[in-house]
Amino acid sequence: MLHSYPKRVHFLLLALTAIVATFPLWGKAVFGGQADFILEKLTLMLILALFAMSLDLLVGIVGLVSLGHALFFGLGAYTLALASPEFSPASLWWMLPLVMAVAAAAALGVGLLVIRTKGIFFIMTTLAFGQMLYYLVSTSPFTGGTDGVFIMFRPSLAVGETSLLNLDDPYVFFYFCLGVLATGYLFLRWLTRSYFGQVLDGIHDNEHRMQALGYATHGYKLIAFVISGVLAAIAGMLAAMQYGFANPAQLGWHTSGEVLMMLILGGMGTVFGPILGAFAYEILLFLYEHLTTHWPILMGLTIIVAVLVLPRGIAGLIVAPPGKAEPSKAPWLRRLVGKGAAASPPEVTKRRVQS
Amino acid sequence: MKHEAILATRGLTRRFGGLVAVNDVDFDVKPGEIHAILGPNGAGKSTLINLLSGEIPPSAGEVCYRGKPIQGKSVRQTARLGIGRSHQKTNIFPRLNCLQNCELAARIHMGGVFASWRSRHRAREVSRRALEVLETCRLTHRAHTPAADMSYGEQRQLQIAMVLATAPTLMLLDEPMAGMGREETDQVADLLASLTDRYTLVLIEHDMDSVFRLADRITVMVDGCVLESGPTEQIRRSEKVRDVYLGRHDEEVTA
């Protein structure tokens, strides 16, 4: 994504951030006693949004569909769980770099082996590596088998003896996750708009042509794979912090599939789309779980309908597809909002004349 | 040095299963010339270009570029050595604008992506080179137009601009005028003619007028073999070529 987003995207993101960030103020009034539970859910959504966003770099930007992304998510969780001391909180100052380093090393190792494959082969090889780690972790006594590992103390963020942030407080942890997500978003926006991002776009559109120009495309893809893995691991670490354990389910292919669905639902290749997708998916999940125990059927139908109606996800409603001026809507939607669509082009020309 | 071939092949052969697409081809390109490859469909012209640029490896034979063997090198490696190539199919990046397309091409040959990232000066140099080639290709007024929004002819010109941006020594152009109208064809022909003082061109083209106007030398291929190779005048007068290619016994040769 090289072109800058239309103003409405920034407006929407700021508005959503404001709504979410002020939840502690209005949550009690709206949800009453449920507020704490909702806050926990919101925190989870922020974490999953970061996870989905990290996958977007790979799937949406570079065009490599991975079905093993949970490997890095789970790796982040397990690194935290296994490296935490048993009777005292770990310091985030060294825990975060450790998680990032472990994930980078793993992503480099896996990436070197899978990055030359494409399409279905990339899906299968990433899936294979994800499942390898899944079985390794769920059968090894060192990692607590299928029970996983409990984290007795949430890592702390302190300078000397004074605590900077009391992450044990759910409200503080919520804001902490919001901050990490915002940082991740800004980082990915910067990255995808940089010269490096331009090369990734080129690879996505026509890798062969990039090679003919002289680009060693595998190297760039590998770097993107590592960055994507590191961001996913940070999300995994946050998830482990929130729940207080690392569990094999966090790195199974279900998790990989779920995050892929969030990405598809939100809109690939847009960086902000996955955030919307993660929120939409989790909200739907929450509603469906309350409706019926057979919620996966409803969820599956929703995803099918979403793909048919919104092929470019929720983000496709807001931004134009690359190289086109206006958001192209699904046929039924264009008919539905026909008037609005007809009214918008003159606005664009007016702006052009003014500038 | 002037008379030494910049690119030479000896016994170059490529088989696809039982089909010999390029058969024992000896082919020389001299520095500074426009060398056109002619031949009916299926004569092996594109395969030959693909062999020269490293897109496919030869089954047998040798490709020498500036005296060094390059067969077996990848298309990326030959690109870095200064062999620029354009494809028959329009091959631009539709999401980028004209200038960005050329910058992308120039950047990898000017220290790479990370050099531009570190140094503003370098990034500016890349932009300058991109603007230069747009000027050469008369696309300056389109610099900030998304490539997807340009006319087909302009896209083809942009493709040539991108090859130029890589500052190649040798350009391999596969049908640069394919699918163009008369006027656009003439424009591109003018453009190519203006490049000869700086670049060596190998050209596959079906437009006879342009080929005879532009080329210094022509190689005619039939069924994977070189039928005749020589200066344009010689090919124009050649009975052999006229028989096979220019359509005297059309029904016999077009298979």
Tell me the fraction of residues in β-strands of chain A, as a range. under 5%
CATH architecture of chain A: Orthogonal Bundle
**Quaternary class:** heterodimer
Tally the helices of chain A: 14
By CATH reckoning, the class of chain A would read Mainly Alpha
Structural class category of chain A: mainly alpha
Report low-confidence residues of chain B grouped into runs of 5 or more. Answer: 249-255
H/E order of the elements of chain B?
EEEHEEHEHHHHEHEHEEHHH
Number of domains of chain B: 2
Instruction: Just name the CATH architecture of the largest domain in chain B.
Output: 3-Layer(aba) Sandwich
For the record, the CATH class of the largest domain in chain B is Alpha Beta
Give a short account of the largest sheet of chain B.
6 strands, mixed
Largest interface: A-B, 24 and 32 residues
What is the CA-based Rg of chain B, rounded?
Answer: 19 Å
What is the approximate shape of chain B? globular
Helix content of chain B: 25-40%
Number of strands of chain A: 4
Helix content of chain A: over 70%
The coarse silhouette of chain A is globular
- Mean pLDDT of chain B comes to 87
Summary?
Chain A: Keywords: Cell membrane, Membrane, Transmembrane, Transmembrane helix. With 355 residues, chain A is mainly α.
